[in-house]
Specification:
Elements lengths: L11 H20 L4 H23 L12 H21 L5 H30 L7 H14 L2 H4 L7 H24 L3 H12 L4
Helix pairs in contact: 1-2, 1-4, 2-4, 3-4, 3-8, 4-5, 4-8, 5-7, 7-8
Length: about 200
């Protein structure tokens, strides 16, 4: 069985539940943006819920993007990509190593992994229980991913033309990363791309 297969009717409720929890947590994190304790605590709730649902309902973590297909090879490529991104940050972007190491670790552990688990993992996979065209299901997942950037960002910035463009890019990025996950069966390569986007600010 591969990622993004047809699921039993009703499984979409898990996708919308986790998305709703994540939206609420992001709103709270933005509301109390100066409170690091709130920021860190709200950041683990939705990913933790996704892992719990996968273990209790699916009896596996595969639906989070951990199918064994190509996992060893893609893990090696991912680690090489992380190393290359770190070197680019230091030698091309001029980051100090003291800044770059914790920064890339933050983007991997706190940003990329949770978002991949949530959006390319549980949410997108469980949306395939809906009785609609598969392309529409991918677009629904992309819309949920793009919308998830609104609650936090709207409390620390204004909604301008740039933010609208960034939401559009986020929508397309989800579709591209889902295509990779569907082909490879794991989130290793999407993780490498995600970290490059955030750490190196390529988009």
């Amino acid at each position: 069985m591969e990622m993004y297969h047809e699921r039993p009717r009703g499984d979409e409720m898990y996708a919308f539940l986790v998305w709703g929890v994540q939206m609420f947590c992001l709103y709270i994190a933005g509301k109390f943006a100066d409170n690091l304790l709130v920021y860190w605590c709200t950041g683990v709730i939705a990913p933790g819920l996704a892992i719990l649902i996968s273990l209790k309902h699916d009896h596996s973590l595969k639906e989070l993007g951990l199918y064994p297909n190509h996992l060893k090879r893609d893990s090696a490529v991912m680690l090489c990509a992380f190393a290359a991104e770190l070197l680019i940050g230091v030698y091309i972007y001029g980051m100090s190593l003291e800044y770059a190491l914790p920064a890339i670790a933050y983007y991997i552990v706190w940003i990329a992994v949770p978002e991949e688990i949530l959006f390319r993992g549980l949410i997108q996979s469980h949306l395939f229980s809906l009785p609609v065209n598969r392309k529409l299901v991918y677009c629904m997942g992309a819309a949920l991913f793009a919308a998830s950037h609104i609650p936090y960002q709207m409390q620390i910035r204004t909604w301008d033309a740039l933010f609208t463009v960034q939401l559009g890019i986020t929508f397309v990025t989800h579709l591209v990363l889902c295509w990779i996950v569907r082909k490879r069966g794991n989130m290793c390569l999407p993780l490498a791309i995600h970290v490059a986007q955030d750490f190196l600010q390529v988009i």
